[in-house]
Design brief:
485 residues; 2 domains
Length: 485
Amino acid sequence: MESDKIIANKELNIWEALLPVLVLVVLLAYNVYIYGDDALSGTNQFILLLGGAVAAIVGFLNKVGYKTMLEEISNNFKSTTGAILILLFVGALSGTWLISGIIPAMIYYGVQILNPSIFLPATVVICAIISLATGSSWSTSATVGIALIGIGKAIGLPLGMVAGAVLSGAYFGDKMSPLSDTTNLAPAMAGAELFEHIRYMALTTVPTIVITIIIFTILGITQGISGSTDTSAILSAIDDSFHISPLLFLVPIAVIVMITQKAPPLVALMAGTLLGALFALIFQPNIVASIGGAETLTMESGYRGVMNAMTVDSAIVTNDASLNDLFSSGGMKGMLGTIWLIMCAMVFGGVMDAIGALEKISAVLLNMANSVFGLFASTVASCLALNVTASDQYLAIVVPGKMFSKAYQDKGLHPVNLSRTLEDSGTVTSVLIPWNTCGAYQAGVLGVSTLEYFVYAIFNYLSPFMTLLYAALHFKIKSIIKEEN
């Protein structure tokens, strides 16, 4: 990512650069108005291709060749290879963790241990700790996040609210962890040192997460959920359908340990999937046989049941109707819609980069920065714009990092100001955009649409406002001159 070339096109003016964005926003808004949540099932994907087509027409009119556009789209596809593979493995993992009883066990014990009145703030804290330890908001959502969504549904909380709490905690850890790729990428682009960047970022991030926890505490109280909520029917339904044992937690613990030991995410997810399959055969033989289309577990039905859980739709019917939707998984097949969305987003982002639109938009924002606050505001706006147009959080860090680095230096500002702003506005807001790779991934994994959790992803949209507040008050803005003195 650090060596990616930002394409400039002197023939392009700002209005031509903005035209595909405006067309995309209008078409997406109308499409969502017509289809609602179903827009993510396929129609939004085609709208992104239409946006790419408009950008391509603008490029042809400004002497950009078809081959150049195709090469940039190809480069974008290459950059998402890891994300697509992770999505497929997450689908397989969720299938084996369901039929093995791991996810039901998390819900079973979680309903009993987590006091419903403090469930939301506890969710933020739990996800923050795990994401901080693993350096990955994606892994946190795919493991603990899914279980917390299940517990939240079981005690009657709105799923958008629970998903917002999961993502708030997960992205706090993702921002602050030295194991996170974005935490390493931001200072690399700005020219700052990693741990200095983390310490400086804590000045805005810690107050933001504290405010987030307070808000979720208030939301939990106003929901009227109390610790005396009767969950006996839910517990009984789970107990009747699965063999629940604390030993099932060995699998998620093993995955978390592997990630904290810096094992590649794909290796950890593959291990988690295979361990889940093994535990399914040991603890839930009847369920595996049923998924495999047989009454008893044999070599063939066991193989068929495990493979079906990993690759296609599988569902386990319980005595409680509210749990039936929860105890279903689409496997790898269930992730194809999200992958489709990511690929179409990469087409749009690739064409926008090829015609020089991304560079033009960033340059105009840079020219508007006449003051320190203006420079910070332009950086935030550039990150948000790239999350919307390029549909990738890495580009939202790389492009502004390259464009604004010299401007911060010219104003005597330390590089950590830029690296912190890149994370406060680029990393965390990516999950708020439905067609962004992060938004599409989290919506697909958690089973909650972006529109549902948008309002409750408090930490994510509060972060850029916090960094702008610090800039407006000129509070904790580190300068090169003061450091030298």
